[in-house]
Amino acid sequence: MPDYGIRFHETGGPEVLRYEEIELPPPGRGEARIRITAVGLNFVDTYRRTGLYPVDLPSALGAEAVGVVTELGEGTTGLAVGDRVAHATGPLGAYATAQNVPADCLVSVPDGVTDESAAAVLLKGLTAWYLLRRTYPVRSGETVVFHAAAGGVGLIAGQWLRHLGVRAIGTVGSAEKAKVALENGYREVILYREDDVAARVRELTDGEGVPVVYDSVGAATFENSLDCLRPRGLMVSFGNASGPVTGVNLGILAAKGSLFVTRPTTAHYLNDRDELRAAAAELFDLVERGVTNPNVGQRFALADAANAHRALESRATTGATVLLP
């Protein structure tokens, strides 16, 4: 049976995505071939498709998948044919029915986590892990601001923050999304289209501001996020949903309270095999215990990936979206 995958031969809108037959070579040394059962959709996929994050063309797409090991390359250890595995830090090509993946990028999926749940939660959950546990290790009793609270990462972060005893203030674009965010751990939610986010945060913190803001929106929220911070607070910019932040005058950071800004990426926090597997084990344990709900809000056939991208970019999605081969 032939394998299929999504490819794009030029950058642009969702229409450039093509569902094509693909030919995979045998898995190389240290690799495993997996038969993919579920694929996670992430905003970074749209950045690659549009050219914001350049890739060599033609290109495969997708960096998060769950599947079953069907073949091992020479010298591959720690895995067996039939193992359920997932990856979110491997090579592009997850939008497919099969893929060869370096064994060091694969993590075990426990029996108590379904394929869809693992695909929905892994990259977003690992992102939440490094944001909350490494970039700014939150502490019980603190108050933080998290933009796009009803998105895939936002919902997992809200659940995790509640579990850690942190008061989370989320921002969303609609009353419907506010309800979802409140159900998933956020103590307060601000409708950014209706309210002045920074003013409301100051009100909720008795004028003090917060020690950290997590912002995946980008250009549209950057300065407002700075205004939410207390002196020497940290702005964590980890996405560009509204476009990249450019032309920043560093003097603004001094004027607003000697602030810090960081732009973390998954690659720099999860490039160690042991740390990756420890992070995934912690995440999947929370899923199994019901602390974290993957929140699969939408399902699309793999061949319908273009429409999945349209829904994601128009902010018409809630929670996680999975593609099913």
TrEMBL record:
Q: Which GO terms describe its molecular function?
A: mRNA 3'-UTR AU-rich region binding; NADPH binding; quinone reductase (NADPH) activity
Name by which UniProt lists this protein? NADPH2:quinone reductase
Q: Write out the entry's keywords from A to Z.
A: NADP, Oxidoreductase
Where in the numbering of this chain does the Enoyl reductase (ER) domain appear? 12-323
* Source organism, top-level taxon: Bacteria
Q: Which CDD domains match?
A: QOR2 (cd05286)
Among its keywords, does the record have Cell membrane? no
**Annotated Gene Ontology cellular component terms:** cytosol
Q: What Gene3D superfamilies does UniProt report for this protein, alphabetically? A: Medium-chain alcohol dehydrogenases, catalytic domain, NAD(P)-binding Rossmann-like Domain
